[in-house]
Amino acid sequence: MSRVGKTPVSIPQGVTVAITGQNVTAKGKAGQLALTLADEVSVEMKDGEVLVSPRDTTKRGKMIWGLSRNLIKNMINGVAGGFRKDLEINGVGYRAAVQGKNLNLQLGFSHDVIFPIPEGIIIKCDKPTSISISGADRHLVGQVAANIRALKKPEPYKGKGIKYDTETIRRKEGKKK
Q1: Which residues contact 78 (CB under 8 A, 6 or more apart)?
Q2: Strand 23-28 relative to strand 49-54: parallel, antiparallel, unpaired?
Q3: Considering the entire predicted model, what is its pTM?
Q4: Is 162 exposed, middle or buried (0-12, 13-18, 19+ CB in 10 A)?
Q5: CA 71 to CA 139: how far, in whole Å?
Q6: Distance between CA 32 and CA 29 in Å, rounded?
């Protein structure tokens, strides 16, 4: 039995959830998200909570049960308040700026790197060395942050590159004379 799947997902104030068959739609102040669930699980609403249960006791049915519950939870939390990832840029001359629908990055290359901002994502650069990514879809926010970080990963000798604000870079000792 899935301990994650058993727990119901409570619906906060200001969020409306609609269930039609295997489709779940959530609407809130941060936007609207939709999800189509696998056939191995069934979903229903009771007393302002969303309950997910498996249709059969196969191995796949049990796996999809907890996954579906967490996907619905992330969707509801996303439309209620949204998700956010922060990145830091370290290095001399490395900086970022939002220009229209693009993120312009100067990362020590001979050219500027232009990263197009996807729909549903808000990117802010309060300082030239910090990037804040926010949106309602948790998966999309994390993927955009990972794609931006992959443009110039932090290196272990001087720590130059793009890193998450919570990330710690293990530094290596350089050459000795």
Answers
A1: 26, 30, 31, 33, 135, 136, 137, 138
A2: unpaired
A3: 0.88
A4: buried
A5: 10
A6: 8
As a whole number of angstroms, the distance between CA 143 and CA 85 comes to: 10
Q: Dihedral (C-alpha) 128, 131, 132, 137: value to the nearest 10 degrees?
A: 150
Q: What are the structural domains, with CATH classification, of the chain?
A: 3-80 (3.90.930.12), 83-164 (3.90.930.12)
pLDDT for residue 1 = 57
Identity of the amino acid at 18:
A
- Per residue in 81-124, pLDDT tens? 999 999 999 999 999 999 999 999 999 999 999 999 999 999 99
Percent pLDDT > 70 in the chain is: 99
User: Which position has the token pair 């959530």?
Assistant: 26
Q: How far apart are CA 56 and CA 64, in angstroms?
A: 11
